[in-house]
Design the sequence.
């Protein structure tokens, strides 16, 4: 490797030559050929597709967030209604206070569920299992509570309560 030695006449010529060398190293000349332009266009198109996919994913996530917000508001409304009903029951001195304690004890086994979930019409397996367990516990621990009272307390009709109790007894072998 040989190094060319050049003599400069002034400091300005040295600076100009250094700046030109720097520009060649940092910004090398690129020939804008058809292939280079097509490659750049392909890259831009790929990035545009990626952006569209990310926008769609964002819209889907936003839709899920909006749905969850609505469910949360509904659950809060239901919880407020339950609190009002509990306050009314406590004022009346009825069996609902004791029922609330029984249900809370049963629901400890399903920490991800609230009373609003249990009173909803959801049919998810774990929700139904918890709902039926609450009905059975109420029927067993408060024998003077009628099916209609249990149904009112749970926010359902009494035929659903009778079905849950019948299903439990059949599973326990008490009835055929």
Sequence:
């Amino acid at each position: 490797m040989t190094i060319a030695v050049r003599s400069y006449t002034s400091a300005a010529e040295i600076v100009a030559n250094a700046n030109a060398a720097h520009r060649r190293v940092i910004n090398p000349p690129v020939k804008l050929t058809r292939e280079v332009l097509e490659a750049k266009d392909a890259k831009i198109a790929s990035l545009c597709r990626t952006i569209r996919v990310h926008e769609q994913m964002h819209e889907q996530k936003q839709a899920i967030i909006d749905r969850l917000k609505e469910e949360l508001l509904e659950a809060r409304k239901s919880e407020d209604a339950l609190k009002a009903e509990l306050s009314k029951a406590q004022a009346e001195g009825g069996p609902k206070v004791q029922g609330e304690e029984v249900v809370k004890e049963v629901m400890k086994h399903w920490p991800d569920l609230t009373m609003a979930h249990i009173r909803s019409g959801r049919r998810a397996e774990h929700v139904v299992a918890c709902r039926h367990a609450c009905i059975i516990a109420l029927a067993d621990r408060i024998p003077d509570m009628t099916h209609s009272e249990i149904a009112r307390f749970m926010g359902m009709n009494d035929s659903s309560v009778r079905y849950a109790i019948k299903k439990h007894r059949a599973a326990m072998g008490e009835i055929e």
